[in-house]
Design brief:
The protein folds into two domains: 84 residues, no CATH class; 82 residues. Helices cover 66% and strands 0% of the residues. The chain has eleven helices and no strands. The model has no long low-confidence stretch (mean pLDDT 90).
Length: 186
């Protein structure tokens, strides 16, 4: 006589809803712990929580990742693994940090510029106060649309080498020329 199939072999659709709610609640709580001030959570606890959050975000849906990114965007100090994961994510997720985070360092922005999409680079080029090293990394990609956004941003600082690279690019992209001529670095 055969045994009946176990009930777990055919998960009920209703079972997925509580799982999704539980997952969203856990993501929120982990993000909340990462956001706590240093007086409330020590560096080890923050790093451990960030590691858990990174692992959960790898399997999370876009909407959940966007919520976490928005929650973390205004932090003064954020664990590096978490920053890199969010910055390399889809643009809708990375946007919160790229637009709003005042504490992203040049290393984070350069890493994003080298490992993300053209749209990520355009968003970096629009940031206030883009430094020379970040501008170098953005121009290195050789994308005229990104360079055009950089040239329009009056707060970007260009190195001499980067200006020379942009001048060379303007030979093939004449629309860069008027923007280039307005730059103080020339």
């Amino acid at each position: 006589m055969s045994e009946p199939a176990p009930l777990t072999a055919f998960p009920e659709p209703e079972a997925e809803k509580p799982k999704a709610r539980s997952r969203a609640a856990l993501l929120k709580r982990l993000a909340d712990v990462v956001c706590l001030p240093a007086s409330r959570v020590n560096a080890f606890e923050r790093a451990m929580t960030a590691d858990l959050l990174v692992e959960m975000l790898r399997d999370a849906v876009v909407e959940e990742r966007e919520k976490v990114a928005r929650r973390l965007a205004n932090l003064v100090e954020m664990p590096g693994t978490l920053v890199r994961l969010i910055l390399r994510d889809e643009l809708s997720v990375a946007r919160a940090l790229l637009e709003n985070s005042p504490t992203l360092g040049d290393a984070d922005l350069i890493d994003c510029a080298r490992h993300a999409t053209t749209e990520h680079r355009r968003m970096i080029a629009q940031r206030r106060g883009v430094g020379e090293m970040v501008a170098d990394a953005l121009v290195e990609a050789g994308e005229a649309t990104v360079v055009e956004v950089l040239l329009r941003n009056e707060l970007v600082k260009f190195s001499h080498h980067t200006i020379e690279t942009v001048v060379a690019m303007s030979r093939d992209n004449p629309r860069l020329l008027p923007l280039l001529l307005r730059r103080a670095e020339l």
